[in-house]
UniProtKB/TrEMBL annotation, chain A:
Keywords: Endosome, Lipoprotein, Lysosome, Membrane, Myristate, Palmitate. The keyword RNA-binding does not apply. GO terms for cellular component: late endosome membrane; lysosomal membrane; membrane raft; Ragulator complex. PANTHER family: RAGULATOR COMPLEX PROTEIN LAMTOR1 (PTHR13401). It is a lipid-anchor. GO terms for molecular function: guanyl-nucleotide exchange factor activity; molecular adaptor activity. It comes from Etheostoma spectabile (orangethroat darter). Belongs to the LAMTOR1 family. Pfam families: LAMTOR. Its main location: membrane. This is Ragulator complex protein LAMTOR1.
From TrEMBL, chain B:
Belongs to the LAMTOR5 family. GO terms for cellular component: lysosome; Ragulator complex. This is Ragulator complex protein LAMTOR5. Its main location: cytoplasm. GO terms for biological process: cellular response to amino acid stimulus; negative regulation of apoptotic process; positive regulation of TORC1 signaling. It comes from Etheostoma spectabile (orangethroat darter).
Amino acid sequence: DPDERKPLIPHPNPVSKPPNGTDWITTSVPSARTDEQALLTSILTKTAQNIIDVSAADSVMMEQHEYMDKARQYSTKLAVLSNSLPQKKALALPSLTSQPHQVLASDLVPYSDVQQVSKIAAYAYSAISQIKVDAKEELVVQFAIP
Amino acid sequence: MESTLEQHLDDTMKNPAVVGVLCTDEQGHNLGCRGSLSDDHGGVVSVLAKQAGALTKDPTDSPTVCLESESGNILVRSHGTITVAVHKIAS
């Protein structure tokens, strides 16, 4: 079906349809054009080519029955293809409990525990700070040549 | 100079409900552990704490990550450059 691969939104011709909201720089080269100007133009050109102005594009007019026909055509095609394609096996997450309601409704972690851990962490941090380099000698020494 | 930390870990285990404790640095390297928590858990513990910390813009707000299970809870909390995990069983 030749229509199958026709893009839904035809790429607007950058020359005839300027991007929305920007002034199109004229393609005629003025006598004195600085590098900066040329750079700016090239940036604008590149942007215009990459932007698809949806509002400026012609909308695809399709009648209701045409639309329904196409939809049916595609779903039939999909059904045929999905039978031949290998099914991607969805990785099943392990089931942790057969009683999700019970687990979710059970008591929250006691705040006292949270406070306790907070204190344990604070003490551990201060204990760690006692571990430091105990410099006893110079690291760099002169070799004495007798 | 690590004796203070070692003593602190021992003291933490004295609590009957605590069955494991682990202390890691920012990269998940084990600084000390006891009981059910060991070297193997260092990476996961430090990453969990770091990711949880990224949930809030306030750098002073340090969250406590709680992993709840039927056999007990593992609470993970960072303080400064270290992360501590405590495994408590339901008492």
